[in-house]
Amino acid sequence: MISRRAFLSMAGASALASPMRVWGRAQSPPAIDAARLRRRLESLSTYGRPPGGTFASGVSRVAYSVADVTARAWMLEEIKSAGVAPRLDAAGNIYARLAGGEPNRPPILFGSHIDSVPGGGNFDGDLGVMAALEVIHAVQAAGLKTRHPLEFVLWAHEESTAFGKGTACSRIVAGDLKPGDLDQVWNGMRRADAIRRIGGDPDRIETVVRPKGSWHAYLELHIEQGGTLDRAKVPIGIVEGIVAIHRYDVVVEGFANHAGTTPMGERQDALVAASTLVLAVREIAASRQGRQVGTVGRLEVEPNSPNVIPGRVALSVEFRDLSEATLRELGEAVKARAAAIARDTKTTIALTLATTNPSAPAHAGVQDAIGRAADQLGLQTRRLPSGAGHDAQMIASLCPMGMIFVPSVGGISHSPRELTSWDDCARGANTLLGAVLELDRRDSV
Ligand code: GLV
Ligand code: MN
Ligand code: MN
Questions:
Q1: Is 17 a residue whose pLDDT tops 60?
Q2: Same domain, residue pair 129 and 179
Q3: How far is the CA of 113 from the centre of ligand 2 (A)?
Q4: Which of 82, 173, 222, 315 would you call most buried, defined as having the most Cβ atoms within 10 angstroms of its Cβ?
Q5: Looking at residues 201-222, what average pLDDT do you find?
Q6: Ligand with the closest atom to the CA of 111
């Protein structure tokens, strides 16, 4: 809960800056409802829960799955219960707007995603969405009329499990949609049909794109997903920037042959080549100074039978760093190693740069607003980069962007064991609320 002293200082500051503030002595100070935030997160966790599981079992709510579709339907009702009307865009992103006192001002946008990785946790994305809904509740409950409209957003398809593409629908909003993207097939499903499954309309996809300046600012509350805040016992992280991501689709072609009759020297084993490449990715990323990381997270072996030498392997190679130049160098290094491995194993290895996420610095003004909000709540802060990708990095090309992190216990994420204390969830949500109100006071961020 927000302290009385913090509230009085917020109310005092805004009384000078914001003529639209209308709450009086009889009304409550703006604060989120921590119990409702928890209740909603617990309810959301039932969508995609393993059979017979509990909250601690986490969720598999991959974009476009039944769990995702049903959770989104439930979310539409929750959004309505917050007193705002949900609106789907043609990509399946869900917006809901609370009118401001000065309607010609661009809205302040805030939200996150509810799709998960397979075997994911209960907080990645979910916390940011539910906290955003709390902001909508809290502003109304306090009888407050902001100057800017406030806009809640639930981004569709953030994780890169489906179609190997992450931040997929905020990406379209930012104008990154290439010819043929909607014809991609994953799990036997065309991407256009996947978008239809969640209520989007691929035939009108161009209407999703928003011009620069569409919003006053974008804010996203998220769990850190690393261990910096937890180790330092600092409740609020102010993100300085989000790493760039380069992801390659790799196909290794060997020759499928009988595992019992083909002598060792005559094999063209695609899995042996792929395995050597996996180790090369680790070595390339680890053997230079810096925070860059490299991962092979997906491997599909064909025909995947114990008595057949693998003839084909498809895999992903992903590098992340704040510097795009570093990512290009890592890409060149892995291509050179792949050529050498292909020669040694009598296979062919093709690498295609499948997706890139730009690195995105958080706007200094938004970082400052988050810092002030945390100060007013008496919460210690630390600035840090984000090693995870976020929809915020797409929206950063359209308006000033900032992110608030809260601690992930043990730095665990993309796992059912992902955990953030309920108190930290509430602290993060109140900081989001304070930052939204702080940005509302400013004519320019
Ligand atoms: C999203 O969670 C990512 O960093 O891949
Ligand atoms: Mn994630
Ligand atoms: Mn996330």
A1: no
A2: yes
A3: 9
A4: 222
A5: 98
A6: 3
Q: How many structural domains comprise the chain?
A: 2
* CA of 117, closest atom in ligand 1: 2
Check whether 1 has a pLDDT greater than 90. no
Which atom of ligand 1 is nearest to 387's Cα?
4
pLDDT in tens, 377-431: 999 999 999 999 999 999 999 999 999 999 999 999 999 999 999 999 999 999 9
**Does the residue 111 lie in any domain?**
yes
Q: Do 285 and 387 contact (CB within 8 A), yes or no?
A: no
Q: How far is residue 391's CA from residue 320's CA, in Å, rounded to a whole number? A: 16
165 CA distance to ligand 1 centroid (A)?
Answer: 10
- Does residue 104 sit within a domain? yes
Same domain, 144 and 189: yes
Length of the chain measured in residues: 445
* 394 contacts: CB under 8 Å, gap ≥ 6: 167, 170, 171, 173, 174, 176, 357
pLDDT classification of 27: cutoffs 50, 70, 90? low
Q: Which ligand 1 atom is at minimum distance from the Cα of 124?
A: 2
Residue ranges around ligand 1 (CB below 6 Å): 159-160, 166, 388-389
**pLDDT band, residue 28 (cuts 50/70/90):** low
- The predicted pLDDT at position 103 comes to 83
Same domain as 119, residue 99: yes
Residue with tokens 């946008």: 109
The ligand whose atoms approach the alpha carbon of 418 most closely is: 2
**Of the candidates 169, 211, 237, 197, the residue with the CA atom closest to the CA atom of residue 390:** 169
CA of residue 290 to ligand 2 center, whole Å: 23
Say yes or no: 235 and 339 in one domain: no
Residue where a domain terminates, one of 309, 328, 357:
357
DSSP-assigned beta bridge partners for residue 94: 88, 154
Residue 19 pLDDT > 90: no
Considering only residues 378 and 22, tell me which one the structure prediction assigns the higher pLDDT: 378
| Number of the ligand closest to the Cα of 386 | 1
Whole-angstrom distance, CA of residue 418 vs CA of residue 413: 5
Identify residue 304 by its one-letter amino acid code.
Answer: N
Give 314's contacts (C-beta < 8 A, 6+ positions apart).
249, 250, 251, 252, 298, 299, 300, 302
Amino acid symbol at 5: R
Query: Residue 9: is its pLDDT beyond 50?
Result: no
In a domain, 217, yes or no: yes
Q: What angle do CA 137, 142, 144 make, to 5 degrees?
A: 95
Which pair of structure tokens corresponds to residue 150?
């406030």
